[in-house]
Write a structure and sequence with these properties.
- One of its GO terms (cellular component) is nucleus.
- This protein is of the alpha/beta class.
- It is built from 19 helices and 14 strands.
- Strands 10-11-12-8-13-14 form a six-stranded mixed sheet, with helices on both faces. The chain has a four-stranded antiparallel sheet with strand order 1-2-4-3. Strands 5-9-6-7 form a four-stranded mixed sheet, with helices on one face.
- The termini are far apart.
Length: 523
């Protein structure tokens, strides 16, 4: 606790003392409520034990000793009357000083010359009692502030301050009363701090169980308000959720599309999700992890029905937060997360991986992902529950759909100029990431997106990427590539050279009549 730490160094502020008192007082009330219902819930029974009489003692001491109202006015630790008799005596003396000093000032005025019309006795900490006299006209003109039998101290705002025989007697008789009061109250504060620090374990225990109770109450309220249901916890290894929802995302959108979760039992334990950008893959992965986690901490879950297996660990590889303090690249951070799952995940573990391998070149990232999945596939039913989202659509060629692996995607409706996200999980493999549509929605110009699509097509066809203004050069090169492919496939023993020459002549003179597909025909 921050307040306990500040008390150890005697740095507790007024707000700290007030917070501590309010905490102890209200915790005492919570303890009484829980004590009356200790047989209903285990948490109530634990609180009734932890919220002991020491808590009452702390609240009682704070209330008895500290005058919070005066503390706020004077901005320093103030002790209530009746705590210390010596302190009470000093405060009575200090509070009676104004009347007493008025009497002394009247006596002083009788001994002063007639040009001094008024005076007063004041008290200043550290300086003691002083005689304050308004500067006379003579003093202002001559700058001579000397008065017989008085010792000049200083002048402020035309008020001259002196030490007299009477003020010296007051110093000797009463002393520096205010400083003595401060010192005494500081001593009492330190003693109070020592007593509270001796019972710090009680306060720490109170905070721990108060936090637990607060969390349980928050989960209970959320379960009621958002229609969460009680999950079934099973040792059978089946992870089945009907109409599962993300507990936070559904509060941020007008409507949320629920999706099922099926893993283990008769279902494959390895799920590979592909789909367009912004289609809901990451939300689904987090939804899976959150539902599993919430069930294991005793919470209801956002779903229509849920059967959750007992999990020993939940591994996530979803976000690599780079930092100069770590001295690690994003890829290395991602590798560390994934290696933890590879080395420690069991058949009772849950692994969530979102686009593993994206932080390095695509070939290396894909190879690492394939090797990792093959490692888990070899474990068969002993494999952990794996939910993996990726843009490596070629994974389907390495892992045909089977009882161990299932490919899922987020459904969309595609048109020529746009796509509509349905956020519905279906079986299948995405054919494209639709990055161009996502770029348009993000505000990129149509010209840039159109150029991006042409470059992507060229790279996919393993063709050279030409400048945008050189389309005629591109057509010419395509014709040359067509002729080259035809020549490479030409077999002089079985083909007619005359036909080949006619093809070349036609390709040069009539470029639009020769397509890339024609080049694959044999002569």
């Amino acid at each position: 606790m921050r307040i306990i730490t500040r008390m150890k160094t005697a740095q507790a502020s007024m707000n700290d003392w007030q917070s501590l008192y309010k905490t102890a007082y209200h915790a005492m009330l919570v303890g009484e409520i829980c004590r009356s219902r200790a047989n209903n819930l285990e948490i109530f029974k634990q609180i009734s034990v932890v919220f002991s009489t020491d808590l009452f003692r702390i609240a009682s001491l704070l209330n008895k000793i500290i005058d919070f109202e005066e503390y706020a006015k004077q901005n320093h630790f103030v002790v209530k009357p009746g705590v210390d008799s010596e302190l009470d005596k000093m405060k009575r003396t200090y509070n009676g000083l104004p009347d007493f000093m008025t009497q002394v000032a009247y006596q002083e005025l009788q001994d002063l010359s007639q040009d001094v019309q008024q005076c007063s006795v004041i008290y200043l900490p550290q300086l003691g009692y002083l005689l304050a006299i308004p500067a006379t006209e003579r003093m202002k003109e001559t700058k001579d502030y000397s008065i017989p039998n008085l010792r000049f101290m200083f002048i402020v705002n035309d008020i001259v301050h002196y030490k007299s025989a009477n003020t010296k007697k007051l110093d000797a008789l009463l002393g520096d009363t205010l400083c003595d009061i401060y010192d005494k109250e500081t001593q009492i504060m330190h003693k109070l701090q020592d007593v509270i620090l001796e019972m710090k374990d009680v306060l720490i225990g109170v905070m721990e169980y108060a936090a637990k109770l607060d969390c349980l109450m928050a989960l209970a309220v959320a379960a009621k308000e958002y229609s969460w249901i009680q999950p079934e916890i099973s040792d059978e290894g089946e992870f089945v959720v009907e109409k599962g929802r993300h507990p936070l995302q559904e509060m941020c959108v007008p409507s949320f599309v629920a999706n099922d979760i099926c893993s283990g039992g008769c279902e494959s334990k390895i799920k590979i999700l592909t789909g367009p950008n912004s289609s809901g893959k990451s939300i689904y992965l987090k939804q899976v992890a959150l539902i599993a986690f919430m069930a294991h901490i005793g919470s209801f879950v956002p779903a229509q029905r849920a059967k959750i297996p007992t999990l020993d660990k939940i591994f996530t590889c979803t976000f690599a937060a780079e930092s100069v303090s770590l001295n690690l690249s994003g890829f290395l951070i991602s590798l560390n997360q994934f290696s933890g799952a590879l080395n420690n995940a069991t058949g009772k573990s849950l692994v969530i991986a979102d686009e593993f391998g994206k932080d390095t070149e695509s070939e290396s990232g894909l190879a690492l992902l394939i090797a990792s999945l093959k490692f888990w596939i070899q474990k068969a039913s002993a494999s952990p529950h794996i939910f993996l989202a990726t843009h490596y659509q070629s994974l389907s060629t390495f892992f045909p759909q089977s009882s161990l692996v299932k490919f899922l995607t987020m459904d969309i409706i595609e048109s020529q100029e746009d796509i509509a996200y349905l956020y519905q999980l279906v079986e299948g493999i995405a054919t494209s990431s639709f990055a161009s549509f996502t770029a348009l929605k993000a505000g990129l110009s149509k010209k840039i997106v159109k150029r991006n699509m042409k470059i992507a097509e060229a790279l996919k066809a393993r063709e050279p990427v030409l400048p945008e203004e050189s389309s005629w050069v591109h057509d010419k090169l395509r014709r040359y590539f067509t002729i080259l492919e035809k020549f490479t496939a030409f077999d002089i023993n079985t083909s007619n050279p005359q036909d080949f020459l006619q093809f070349v002549n036609k390709a040069i003179k009539e470029p639009h009549s020769v397509t890339h597909q024609n080049s694959k025909e044999t002569i």
